[in-house]
Specification:
Radius of gyration: 26 Å
Number of helices: 1
Order of helices and strands: EEH
Structural class: alpha+beta
Largest sheet: 2 strands, antiparallel
Shape: rod-shaped
Helix content: 40-55%
Amino acid sequence: MPIESISAVPPAGRRLTLRDDDGAWFLDIVELRPRLSPSPIELVRQDIRSILLNQRKLTLIERMREDLYQQALANDAIEAP
C-alpha cells in the first residue's frame, strides 16, 4: 500500500488500520525513523556483503590481468610500448 494513502502517520507504539478495495491492512507502528537517517544494519547487511565481495572480485581480476601481462612480457610474448 503506498504511503501516500496514509493521511497522518501515527506515533510509534500505535496501530493503524487501512481499508481499500482489496481488504484491510493492519499496521503496528513500532518505530519511526527520519527519512535521511542511516539504515539499520539488519536491512543493509546483504548489500554490504555484496559490495565487499564485488570489490574483492574486481581486485582479483585486476591482479590476475597484471600478472598475465607481466608473464607475457617476461616470455617475450608481447612487446612493451
